[in-house]
Amino acid sequence: MSKKNSKKIFAHPWKYKEGFIVTGILFILSIIIELATGDFVLTLPKFPSNWAIILTFTSLIVFLQIYLKDNKIIQWLGSSPAAIVSILYVLFLSILLGLTPQLNSKEALLQYLNVTELSGKWVYLYKLGITNMTESWLFFSGMLFILFTLGFVTVKRSIPFKKKNFGFILNHFGLYLVLIAAVAGTSDKQDFAVVVNKGEQNTTNVAFAWTGEKYALPFSFTLNKFSMEEYNPKLVFYNAQHEEITHQNDNTPFEFKENTKGEFDDWQIEVSQYYEKAWIDTASRAFVKTEDLGNVQAAYIIATNKKTNKKAEGWVSCGNAFFPRANLVLSNNEYFVMLEPEAKRYLSNIDITNNQGEKTNLDIEVNKPKKYKGWKIYQSGYNEEMGKWSTSSTFQIVRDPWLPVVYIGLFMLLAGAVYIFWIGKEKK
Amino acid sequence: MGWINFPVFSYTALATWLIGAIMLLIPLKKNQKIKDIIASSLIGIGTLTIFLFILNLWILLERPPLRTLGETRLWYSFFLPFVGLITYLRWKYKWFISYSIFLAVLFLLINILKPEIHSKTLMPALQSVWFVPHVIVYILSYALLAMSSVVAFYGILLKYFENSNFAKNIETISKGRVNTKFDLKYLNLADNLVYLGFAFLTMGLIFGAMWAKEAWGNYWTWDPKETWALLTWISYILYMHFRHAHKEKVNTQLWILSISFIVLLICWFGINYLPSAANSVHVYS
With an 8 Å Cβ cutoff, are B192 and A418 in contact? Predict the structure, then answer.
């Protein structure tokens, strides 16, 4: 006597059991291929091959869904159980990724673990591609599965088109685009650091990848000027015995400003002079205003302790690469110290010269990247020891030709999110 | 400077918001609808007032007010009641608009009571137009998802205690005023809240990616907070798909909802304690 609801595995219609078996097969196959291919890292080929692959893949799904929609396996791929199983698989792989350090080469992994050879669980994690998930066959299998379920269900619900499926299509096709562009795009994405020193004689076209490899750009950089605006420096208390820096008790920062009186815990502080740009006059041993190179922030303060009436006054300066720091001595181990000011904004003025000799002048500011011939240039760093006097500037240049596709997908998801917000899950 | 006019604008906003919120929450036997319309109009006026102040500040400063902590809080005080009001007009959730007004008042009060940290300037990476929207939608999403868990939990309690002696006692003591019967409407409400919360969660994820692209050149870097945010997003997707496919399997739905909420909590707080997350840009020292 057979149970009413039992059905033979792989008899149609497929549901969860078959789904988990398919997932298991994908998982095991991925591991086998990963182990067999050893150190080979999986990436899609560059443009135009990746374009061709993506278009073929998508067209295949559309074709199959339209012309073979009565096929039981295709019906399963567009069904809820398949969707749920593929979501679970991606969730599982993402958790693996989240719990394991991700490094894109064996050398980087060895460096991270601080060893010369892999041992124990790390051997397996490396060999199975788990320490470099986004370039592993496991990740590829997860992507494949979810792209199939997303693709088939989107086509299914788009043809024939009904208004009520509009939100569904936005969300599912949007995600499909984002995933496919992100995966395809990685092979075409170029991401380098360029370090430029000031002056025409230092013009460079050398870029460095994150792996340290050098790359010759089709254009060169010249740094004309690096400038930085600083926030006003802050006053802090320094205990030399405990080597401890403290702000005042209520944690509000005490900022240096011209002609101000303020309080710092038990001390009354008068900032009688404050210069953003100063240096020491050798004759008077005092700081004077200057526009000259190498200037530093300095202030003359008069500190009076309200409780003990002790008074201390003098120049304080945060110092820089050219001038030593100046602190105000309060007692044996206690000082008032001016902290180095934080950068408010910093920018570089550069010339980019291409192979035809054409020059483009650009101002690159942090958070305000500029475009140049398909590349985007970001101000990423400078010589922090020299601060605003830095004579070198570091840029990040990124070329991401698939970005527009990703953005279309992201905007579809955003529109889909607004749609979900508006429609909700109304019970009619 | 521009903040000199702040008291007028902020006191107006505070007054209209508080009166509006209280009016909204007080039940009236007659004229409930008119009362609610007046209340939401007042809230709208308060929100508009803050918007006008931001505009005024923008013009005076000759730059968008996006640079200091005080300025950021102003935007919170605008967007929170603004989105809360839209959500109320669409869905009539009084608790949600009250919550968003509560937060807006809080941020406004901080600006009123602590004017000296107005000018505490933000790191350059935070001076982005995506910063405020990213934070706002996450604040709202977490509220909605937390509430959906509360509602679902309440619904399940009702299911377990239905017809028990405990329930009968409560009914007797409260003279029938406290509901002790399980009603599917609780789960339907929880479901709707998940959808709204998920919508905001999606926006948060996307705004974060746009911001990262502008600031660092990459929209996704598998930073621990990003990874856990993605796991949270996937968990709620799982819930929505399962509920859609198996409306009758209430117990499993609730399991998935509970685990999703735990993942959310790990994303929100937990990562601050995970050693592997110590270098994340989202961990604030």
Answer: no
